[in-house]
Write a structure and sequence with these properties.
16% strand; alpha/beta; Glutaredoxin; selenocysteine; oxidoreductase; peroxidase; 7 strands; 5-stranded mixed β-sheet; peroxidase activity; two-stranded antiparallel sheet; Glutathione peroxidase
C-alpha cells in the first residue's frame, strides 16, 4: 500500500468551503519532545471530537486498543465490525477502545468532526472516538510518537497505514502492535490475557 498525492482542481460549493473551514486536525509539533519522558499512556492529553481536552489517566486500570481509523479505507468495514464486537464482548471486563481518525493515508478520512460523528453514529460505534490527528511526520501528536517509540513496527517504526492497532496493558504500557491487515478478532486471545492479569 502506498501513499498517493492527488493534484487537481475542483469546484467547491459554498457549503463545502464552509465545511472545509470548520474542519480541523488536532496537530502538535514533533519538535516538542516531552513525550520521550513519558512512562505510561496516562501522561498524555488528547482532544475529543468536540475539541475538549481528555486526559488519558481516565483509563487507568483498563486494557486499551489504540487505533488510527479512516472511514473510506478498504480495511474500514472489517476493522469497525471487529472492534465493535470486541467492545461488546469485553467492555464490561475492562476493555476500552480509543479511535483516532487520520487522513494521512490515501486521504481516506477527508471529513471533519461533523462527518466523523455521523459515520460513528451510522456504524453504531460505542467506543471512544477522538479528534482527527496526524500520526506521522512533523505534526504527529505526542501520543503517537510515544507509541511508535515503545513498540517497533515491521521494517520501520512509522505508522504504515490506517488501522494500525496498539494494545495497552492495565499499567498503561504498550505491549503489542498489530498491522492494518490484522483483524482485531485475530488478537482476541491477547486481549483476554491482558484482561485477566
Amino acid at each position: 500500500v502506498t501513499n498517493q498525492t492527488y493534484v487537481g482542481t475542483s469546484k467547491l460549493t459554498t457549503s463545502a468551503i464552509d465545511r472545509f473551514h470548520n474542519c480541523s486536525v488536532a496537530m502538535a509539533s514533533s519538535k516538542d519532545e516531552e513525550w520521550k519522558n513519558a512512562k505510561t499512556i496516562y501522561e498524555f492529553t488528547v482532544k475529543d471530537l468536540e475539541g475538549r481536552d481528555v486526559k488519558l489517566d481516565k483509563y487507568k486500570g483498563k486494557v486499551l486498543i489504540v487505533v488510527n481509523v479512516a472511514s473510506q479505507c478498504g480495511f474500514t468495514r472489517s476493522n469497525y465490525n471487529d472492534l465493535n464486537e470486541l467492545y461488546s464482548m469485553y467492555h464490561d471486563q475492562g476493555l476500552e477502545i480509543l479511535g483516532f481518525p487520520c487522513n494521512q493515508f490515501g486521504r481516506q478520512e477527508p471529513g471533519c468532526e461533523v462527518d466523523i460523528k455521523e459515520f460513528v453514529k451510522k456504524n453504531n460505534v460505542k467506543w471512544d472516538m477522538f479528534a482527527k490527528v496526524d500520526v506521522n511526520g512533523d505534526h504527529a501528536i505526542p501520543l503517537y510518537n510515544w507509541l511508535k517509540s515503545k513498540v517497533e513496527g515491521m521494517l520501520f517504526d512509522a505508522i504504515k497505514w490506517n488501522f494500525t492497532k496498539f494494545v495497552i496493558n492495565k499499567e498503561g504500557l504498550p505491549v503489542a502492535r498489530y498491522t492494518p491487515s490484522t483483524r482485531p478478532m485475530e488478537f482476541k486471545e491477547r486481549i483476554e490475557a491482558e484482561l485477566k492479569r
